[in-house]
Amino acid sequence: MRPEQIVEAILFASDAPLRAEEIARADEALDEDQVEVAIQQLRQLYLESERAFDLVEVAGGHQLLTRPEFAGYLERFDTIPRPSRLSGPALETLAIIAYRQPIGRLEVEYVRGVGASGVIRTLQERGLVDVVGRGEGIGRPLLYGTTQRFLEHFGFESMESLPRPDELPVVLRDRSMTILPDESPEDPDQEELPLDDPTGEHR
Fold first, then answer.
1. Chain CA centroid to CA 70, Å
2. Which of 14, 44, 116, 191 would you call most buried, defined as having the most Cβ atoms within 10 angstroms of its Cβ?
3. Per-residue pLDDT reduced to its tens digit, 126-158
4. 143 contacts 133 by C-beta, under 8 angstroms
C-alpha cells in the first residue's frame, strides 16, 4: 500500500481529527514526515479533482470534512449525522468563555446581564467547555475554559484561529470592563442572580 492510501483510509474512517504522529502508528513503515507528505498530496488531489470534501486542519489534527456548500443536500437525509445546534444564549456564553478564559460564572453573568448556570451546564454536557481551575476570590470559584471538542465542533485549527480580539465587541476583549463584587462559592444548587432571562435556559 502507498502511504497516501493508508493515510486516506484512516482519515476516512476516523470521526475525529488525527495528528500526523497518530496516523503514523498505523504501520511500522510510516513516519510523521511521510504522513505529512501524503496529507499534502491528498489535499492537492482533492482540490484539483473538485471533490465534495476537503482534508482540513482541525483542533491540531487532520480530518476529512464535506465542503460547506454541500450542507443543504446533506440536511435532507436523516441517516447523516447533524451537528447539534446551539441557541443564541449558548453561543453568546460560549463566545465570552472562549475569549476571556479562564473565567468564572459570575463574570459571565455580569457580562451577559443574565444568569448563566444553566447555559454553562449545557455547554459542559456537550463537551464544549469544562472547569479549568479555581479563582482566587472568596470560596475559590470554578473557572471555565473551552475544550478540544470546541475546536472540533467549530472547525478551528487552534485558539489562534478565532477572530482577532480587535474585531470583537469591547465586552469580549477587555476584561477590565467588568467590575465584580466578591465571588461566592460555586454551588450548583444556589439561587440564580435576580436577572431576567427571557430564554429560560438558565433554569
1. 22
2. 116
3. 889 999 999 887 888 899 999 988 888 887 878
4. yes
Per-residue pLDDT of 14-69, as tens digits, reads 888 899 999 999 988 889 999 999 999 999 999 999 999 999 888 888 999 888 88
Residues 6+ apart with CB under 8 A from 157: 57, 58, 59, 60, 151
Which amino acid belongs to residue 128? L
3-state secondary structure of 117: helix
Q: Which residue has 443574565 as its cell numbers?
A: 114
Q: Which residue ranges form the domains of the chain, and what is each CATH number?
A: 3-74 (1.10.10.10), 88-177 (1.10.10.10)
Instruction: In whole angstroms, give the CA distance from residue 74 to residue 35.
Output: 30
- Cell numbers standing for residue 99: 475569549
